[in-house]
Amino acid sequence: MSVLxxxxxxxFYGLELIGxxxxxxxxxxxxxxxxVGSIVIQLAKTKGLKVIASAGSNEKVEVMKRMGADVAxxxxxxQVEDVLAKEGPIDIYWDHIGGSQLExxxxxxxxxxxxxxxxxxxxxxxxxPHHIKNLAxxxxxxxxxxxxxxxxxxVVIEGHSNNPVKFINALTPLxxxxxxxxxxxVFDGIESVSEAVVTALAGDSTGKxxxxxxxx
Length: 216
Description:
The chain has helices spanning 6-19, 37-46, 58-66, 80-87, 99-108, 121-124, 136-140, 150-158, 165-176, 193-201, and strands at residues 26-29, 50-55, 71-74, 90-95, 109-117, 144-147, 184-188, 208-212. It is α/β, with parallel strands linked by helices. The chain has a domain at 6-153: NAD(P)-binding Rossmann-like Domain (Rossmann fold). It has a 6-stranded parallel β-sheet with strand order 3-2-1-4-5-6, with helices on both faces.
């Protein structure tokens, strides 16, 4: 359900299909303490990238540092634009947020950078939309901006569905060797489902949110 499940597949296929990372490049990961973002950070490090990552609390900043982020910051206390201006430019942006963070990332992108649109957390919470003011830079910088669903990316990368051989072969050794770690936030009991869902959609979770219904 976590690193060798959907979150891991999302991170792996998104980076491979759209990110096309090259050693020495810089990636910015929003929601970097989440189930997917934390794995993106670690996969990017195995590929020789500089990783900038953000989240919404100091506790999550520490999680991202443990996952290997070179630069980890709290976007609620540090301006994304300022951090990217100092630590960028960036070649890849892993976008879970959209809105003002996407605008800041576009402004910090190198020519031919890739933006992987994986989520839109504020939209899930009915947050008023942020109107991005620098869309023209997508043209001027020749950026690639692409949304994806992991099950479609799986077919492209694997050549088929429901048998993720390349993913398993790539991730299993990294997990066994301790190069990929993961975090889980467990809620006990079926009665905690609503709390778990609210926590996940509000962006208050760290790692994969799991509801434990009963002991095996």
